Amino acid sequence: MNDAGQPEDPSAWLPQIAWFQVQVTHPLHPERPLPTQAFLNCIDDVMARMGTLNLKAVQLLLPLPNLGDPARHSSIEAVGVLLQAADWLTDGPPSRSAQVWVSLDSGQDPAITTAAPHMREQIQELRQDAFLLSSAAAIEQDAPVLEPAIRDDAWPGPPKYRAAFHGSLAEWSLDAVGWLAGFLSEVAARQGVHTPLLFTAIKA
């Protein structure tokens, strides 16, 4: 874990207040999604000890699960875990929901742009109310851009190929953003995307 000790970019439109680095040392459990929700819940606890967090954006580098791995032959179980967790997020007043922009960047690998249309279809087919896509087609150029806080040699960077999604998230919190990151990583993996993805969620 590292604190926000990196140089501040005065030209950035959103200030970076914290940066955390973790390493996955064991293969993912074949029936579990990426633990992004648990990870961001830990960060929520850390930030609460520092003061009140005015959260505007979250960026994660996601190591996507490889569904071609014999130990992880299907992500149906992992998606099921996420759909059950979605019920927890939606068990609250509608006033807690927030409009968000989410982007997934596969760097120099075009995999995400090929998968994006099928991902939209799958998001709408899966029964969950935690993240509802906007009925109007999102225009890629309208999505805000947050520059990566990681070096290009840590992923297939620099950014180039990106898919953007706009919709309503059940609540704007690190818990909900963590769920969304895990959910979209599973949906992307089911469409054949296995390269690491730069996930960015920005409150609209």
What do you see in this structure?
α1 packs antiparallel against α4 (174-190) and α2 (76-90) runs antiparallel to α4. The chain is α+β, with helices and mostly antiparallel strands and 204 residues long. 29% of the residues are buried. Strands 1-5-2-4-3 form a five-stranded antiparallel beta sheet. The protein has helices spanning 36-50, 76-90, 111-125, 174-190, and strands at residues 57-62, 98-105, 131-133, 162-169, 197-203.
Quick structural overview:
The chain has helices spanning 36-50, 76-90, 111-125, 174-190, and strands at 57-62, 98-105, 131-133, 162-169, 197-203. With 204 residues, it is α+β, with helices and mostly antiparallel strands.
List key phrases describing it.
4 helices, alpha+beta, 204 residues, 5 strands, globular, five-stranded antiparallel sheet
What is the helix fraction of residues, given as a range? 25-40%
Radius of gyration: 16 Å
Terminal CA distance reads 29 Å
Number of helices: 4
> How much of the polypeptide forms β-strand, as a percent range?
15-25%
In terms of topology, how is this protein built?
Layout lengths: L35 H15 L6 E6 L13 H15 L7 E8 L5 H15 L5 E3 L28 E8 L4 H17 L6 E7 L1
Antiparallel strand pairs: 1-5, 2-4, 2-5, 3-4
